[in-house]
Structure to design on (250 residues):
């Protein structure tokens, strides 16, 4: 029987690329996101390869998260891999000028949403004493950069949660890992800059950024290591990037 991977934020970017790659490698998929139309489209594209189940909910809604996971048929609850990918960045301003609504969105999705989904999935992994949780962090969880204050804080929290969860689950056969990308060209910057596509494009000008497929490839590598091997923390940057604020542009 194929292993089941549960992916949040599967409707675009890294989540969608991960879904496609894991389908190519025989994983059955539980695809999660807020946009049911995109989930349905992706499901229709992948069902010729593997079984696909979709769940439409907002990770910020604790009750909706638990209801969605509880609604899974029993044969879909044996989740082997959880990819906590859902995340967002909103705005880029010094804290004294920041939007509290933006802060709420980042903390609620990047931190609390990750916690809610993990809490809902963990009992099923603990029951089988098996599973792998992969948290998608960011270089922003390793460094703080100008005007990144709350976003960086949210990703530093992901880094701490990743470490804490690994400690909490020590002695079980559940592995916990993180992938922390640098510049990846996705919808990320468009969301951060409130739909300003011209400003978003400038983030990636003059260099070759990472692609969603690159991060999906890293996730596949991590989850296919032998059971006694846990790649706990991976930082992945485009060659042109040395640190969060040091990027060589042609």
């Amino acid at each position: 029987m194929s292993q089941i991977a549960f992916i949040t934020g599967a409707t675009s970017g890294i989540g969608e690329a991960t879904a496609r790659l894991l389908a190519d490698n025989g994983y059955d998929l539980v695809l999660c996101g807020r946009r049911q139309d995109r989930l349905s489209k992706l499901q229709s594209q992948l069902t010729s390869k593997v079984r696909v189940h979709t769940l439409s909910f907002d990770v910020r809604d604790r009750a909706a998260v638990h209801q969605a996971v509880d609604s899974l048929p029993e044969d879909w609850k044996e989740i082997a891999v959880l990819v906590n990918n859902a995340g967002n960045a909103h705005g880029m301003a010094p804290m004294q000028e920041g939007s509290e609504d933006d802060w709420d969105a980042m903390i609620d999705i990047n931190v609390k949403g990750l916690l809610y989904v993990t809490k809902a999935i963990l009992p099923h992994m603990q029951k089988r004493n098996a599973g792998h949780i992969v948290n998608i962090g960011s270089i922003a969880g390793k460094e703080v950069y100008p005007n990144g204050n709350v976003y960086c804080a949210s990703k530093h929290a992901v880094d701490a949660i990743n470490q804490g969860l690994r400690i909490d689950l020590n002695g079980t056969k559940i592995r916990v890992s993180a992938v922390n990308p640098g510049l990846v060209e996705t919808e990320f910057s468009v969301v951060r800059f409130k739909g300003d596509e011209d400003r978003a494009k400038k983030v990636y000008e003059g260099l070759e950024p990472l692609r969603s497929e690159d991060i999906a490839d890293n996730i596949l590598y991590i989850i296919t290591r032998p059971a006694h091997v846990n790649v706990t923390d991976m930082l992945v940057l485009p060659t042109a990037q040395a640190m969060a604020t040091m990027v060589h542009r042609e």
User: Anything to note?
Assistant: Residues 4-247 form a domain with the Rossmann fold fold (CATH 3.40.50.720). The beta strands are 4-7, 28-33, 52-56, 79-84, 131-136, 174-181, 233-236, 241-243, 246-247. The chain has eight helices and nine strands.
